[in-house]
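Q: Give me a backbone?
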Amino acid sequence: MVNATRVILLALTAVFLGNGGPDFIANVGPGFSPAILAQTPGQPSQTPPPPPLIRENATVKLTDHVWAIPDFNVGLVPNVGIIVGSKATLVVDTGMGTRNGDTIVREMKKVSRNADVYLVTTHYHPEHSLGAAAFKGAKIVMTRMQQQDMTELGKPIQDTFASRSALNAELLNGVPYPTADILFDREHRIDLGGVHARLIWRGPAAMHTRGDTMVWIEEDRVLFTGDVVMSQRFLAAQNTSSLVTWIATLDELAALKPAHVVPSHGKLGDATLIARDREFLQAVQSRAAALKKEGKSVDEAIAAVVAEIAPKYSEWGNPQGAAAVVRAAYAEAK
């Protein structure tokens, strides 16, 4: 664990976590892939990254019951969901640290008067979970695996994020990971009053993380995907990510026929975001398996995908951002 953490810290010295750049560090441990950190942001390297702060007064209404606070493609800022029923409100993701959580609470109170609040974190990474302390009295709902991720993997990543800047350190200083009030396996349904939220987990195989949680707002047909779907950047895998599970999950999400898709990062969209990510994963899966069968090394597979496949997804930035998914596909291929 210590060695893996040291690798992360060293790799991060060359990483710019700015607009369009990587928003996370993969699970610490055997599954960690430094290649993930090679994703190049959308701004020149000399440009300081925007501060990882959720914007106030930026909330947009998507449907009768659903609002979102866009991330404006800023690194370490998630797209946040606020779902308001007649008897309770659900918030999806927290921002990094209590300061960001407080911003979300203020935005929530502009659209909801409900006393009962539920909080769901899509995975354990700091910008998705470490603002939870701001939600006083909220019932925190998460998968057992995500709680395990927080316990086993959370502190090293929190420390790494804090080391990147004085503001990050301030945001994360002394912030504890949340403890769930409600733990679930596979699915959990919340009745908010006139609208229902279906929480979905498809582990134990990892996709972005082992505890990835998606939220389907049934009546309004809005899907919050966590980092299982992304916009404006390459999907972020770890060495132990299962593309088999990932593709099957994307198929299941597409079958819901969502009218709105809210990825954890990047522009909000519709079901075409799911289709685009699935197309990419399947192409990488097929090419990596073929190259492995030919006896090519993982580095040769990465070079081939970066040259042949990744440029077809130019809206996601530097083609080198595909490397982590290639490593996962190569490892999983028979």
